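Think of the structure tokens as a kind of shorthand, similar to the way a musician reads notation: each symbol stands for something richer, in this case the local conformation of the backbone. In the example below we present two proteins back to back. Begin with the first one, reading the sequence and then the tokens, and try to describe in your own words what changes along the chain.
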Amino acid sequence: MTPPSTPYGMSRALDVPFEEADRRVREELQKEGFGVLTEIDVQETLKKKLDVDFRPYRILGACNPPLAHKALSAEEQVGLLLPCNVIVYAGASEGTSVVAVLDPRAQLSVAGNPALDELGSEVLARMERVLANL
């Protein structure tokens, strides 16, 4: 299974169940200096609010404090574009999952501030390592 490609993110399919993928991505994010500040359990929310059954799906808001500080120092309102979103969801086949990350260059390009370009590239390199090491 190859996850869909988007112009704003990159993903990796894994031959592990959802909970294992979630655990692994958190570990790899931590190795790159990111903590998970926010977490949205989409499956639980859709069940609770709409009584809809949905596959296991989580949105993680990952933050690397030194990099966030650099971004905020370059542009005060860049906080509107933080944190870095990472999604983990159960794949189409049982026992598989997908992890995807928002391309930080695409995310920060909205600001139109050249001072954020290098930072976006640094965050991208870290997120690419997260995906590669899963």
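Once you have a description of the first chain, move to the second and do the same.
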Amino acid sequence: MRYARQNKILDIVNSHEVETQDKLVSLLKKAGYQATQATVSRDIKELQLIKVLAPSGRYKYAVSPAAEQPSPERFVTIFKETIRAVDSSGNLIVIKTLPGCANAAGEAIDTMSMNHVVGTVAGDNTLLLIADDPANVPDLVKRFHDILK
């Protein structure tokens, strides 16, 4: 749930002028996420959000340029904590995630720069991975299972 909430926080700060943690808590609540100010404060620190000057002349939360390239270890952790199942058919791999975490899992895979992965497409809780050849799918699935151990 934490990663889904943090993904929603990133969506919110990219689409709204969020000046305070209280406003962020309110916008999260409207989006269906229950969080306290203390939780949001920890999320802001983990996401490395910063305050920048908005066009309105007020300060708002934004993603730090340093935070835009998260470490590969963080993505492996996200992958481990959000994946529920991995299955395949032909050159397609279907990865089931916790609700709201498919985008984060897809970004994790994209960041890992895995050979034989043509691309990923994410929904809410399902990630579709397209392999370059069906012969490479078993190795990719094994690699995902190894990461999950």
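Compare your description with these statements about the second chain. DSSP finds six helices and six strands in the chain.
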